[in-house]
């Protein structure tokens, strides 16, 4: 950041209220210089998106002054509309859902839409469209239909559309929150390139790791700026960050945990810095003290798939052999091709694979919403290829779709949750009983008479999940249950699923988070409709599979990636840790074998 | 997702038809479609079919793709044919079996009515397949522009039309997702008492309505962010110009229609 650069955004004690007295921004002051890369963090409902709208001139505050690109556009509710219109032409916005930002059905036409609105000359539009499509690496999709692209590709089209207008500030409001690993990676690459080329970037995100690339991080809560500064300074306030429902970046958490374990590292949130420190510590050790290489031990007792009470129980079991399915009108291209796997009753299982790998289709088959073209799929002991048995399965298999909150419909939370149990034909008392316990489980007991549409985004998700749990399924299927949630919301879902699983329910979830996948008992990897790997987390994620997973648009859990990078720099841990705690203990053990094996460290992170 | 509307989907290819000025193309297509209903004689029909097939070849779109796009309407064509075949009982009897009777007149009407509707549908499908929604919007914009002088928001109507085309598949996918979600919660559509069915449909509509409102809000934000402010001050990446080849296409179209009409007098 060069502070001498022109000030592009200047907010002076800005306050903004919505209807019903909700204060979205509360006395916010902020200056952004040309060429800066700013990251805004905050829990859902902290005012991040409102701030993003104010920054790109879409919302004017009730109080305080706003100067954009050097022009005063609003002062204490006095709005200069002409000035707003003028500066908006040089401010770009990309937000969460790419579907709602794409207004035409041809990629290049969509990129041209903004420049056309600005009244640019055709030759100039041509140059811009070609340049920006190239910049986001989408030039080979210029004539494609956006609805047929993956989420990451669509979001890149949306970014190209914003860039084609030549913005001096580009605001990205959670651009990666609905994307898979590969999609998020590609968006980060585009942002790095833009930053290097001097574009001023404001990035709103839920992912702390992404904030580490920023020049300056701003943390918001209840419409106020709570923390502001360089990433290293902001993330050193670990307690404040956690209290706001956020989490620190992986390296920061690791550094803190290592310090607790007595490893003499200086706190940092820079991964490179921490790695260097550890490698240097390792070099100080005598080689004889190191554990013999080659005997990679395995950590974690969760590793074994539990033998169910009765091995032949069918309830909660999924067994697939050679299951294939293709959608009508796709010329027989198989969405799922010859998938074979077994999920035992009471297992927690993660299904991973990049967009288009067939995960969602497989879930639809398991939920008996589609009939397999070939192969045998048995769920709860029912054969999914038979129409009658498919009908029996509806109501038995709990299915939480992607963004289940979009399916809420009833007037009250209670009615929505009661929909399923009522359809099962249960007595009124039983329905009531189930609603109470489902709402209790997700923590919405006090909201039962509220309208589901008045809940916050995270609560709506919980309400929709409660509606499925009230059916008391022995088999719960979830499609990206944590997509778009902040760290606290993700943790809430994780703990609910943990409770459900501890009741003996089979829990199968599609996830884009390798960390979450590594927490399950079983992992199934899909690519291009086929099961390409399956087993325990340690079988799926290890030193040998990293490269293959990366090629399939996936990755390794961060702790394992760390262990590998340390090994490459000469600090071999001799094991494959799958979570931060295991990694920290392995490092501590390696650096000081005597001190680290005390039982008091076996606590949770 | 499972449900995909293939009608109204642009198919990119390099052909003279793709390159035509959208106004000329849409205008010719609409006039040609209307004039198929003037076809009465076998000679006219043969000419019409030949013209339609020539057009398919000229667009350089794979035949399977064209067929796929009109498939949903084939049922209507077949039904129309069958109605004519069995219900028009005039003319010489060709076939009789119990109450079933097929007359020469019926057989001819079955062929005539189905084929000429097929020609019209095919021409419409070709128009949609070779024209991007942006071009369609421009064409309708141009067609409506005389009304703009009377105060009608011509450009905005055309824009709404184009956004509708863009969002039909999205909303259809969502309707499907909501119906599936309710099916897995035991609320199947098309089962149970009429009251139960009404409830199921109402539940889907409420959820769909809520999601449409959300789309509309997001879309409004997106249009604002990209400085869309109606047709005024807007430029075009590919401004429409009637070039000689567009005039030639219009002339060819007029000549073909005239030829078919003339063939009717022979």
Automatic annotation (TrEMBL), chain A:
Database matches in InterPro entries: AAA+_ATPase, ABC_transporter-like_ATP-bd, ABC_transporter-like_CS, ABC_transpr_CbiO/EcfA_su, ECF_ABC_transporter_ATP-bd, P-loop_NTPase
Transmembrane spans: none
GO terms for MF: ATP binding; ATP hydrolysis activity; ATPase-coupled transmembrane transporter activity
Cellular location(s): Cell membrane
Cellular component per GO, a single term: ATP-binding cassette (ABC) transporter complex
Keywords tagged on the record: ATP-binding, Cell membrane, Membrane, Nucleotide-binding, Translocase, Transport
Gene3D superfamilies: P-loop containing nucleotide triphosphate hydrolases
Main location, first listed in the record: membrane
Domain of life (superkingdom): Bacteria
Location of the region described as Disordered in the Swiss-Prot/TrEMBL record: 297-317
Database matches in SUPFAM superfamilies: P-loop containing nucleoside triphosphate hydrolases (SSF52540)
Pfam name, any one: ABC_tran
Residue ranges of domain ABC transporter in the record: 9-247, 318-553
Family: Belongs to the ABC transporter superfamily.
Protein name (database record): Energy-coupling factor transport system ATP-binding protein
Organism: Parafannyhessea umbonata
TrEMBL record, chain B:
Main subcellular localisation: membrane
Membrane topology: Multi-pass membrane protein
Keywords carried by this UniProt record: ATP-binding, Membrane, Nucleotide-binding, Transmembrane, Transmembrane helix
GO molecular function, one term: ATP binding
Record-level GO cellular component terms: plasma membrane
Membrane-traversing stretches: 43-63, 70-87, 107-129, 247-265
Name the UniProt record assigns to this protein: Energy-coupling factor transport system permease protein/energy-coupling factor transport system ATP-binding protein
Record keyword Transmembrane helix present: yes
Domain of life: Bacteria
Subcellular location: Membrane
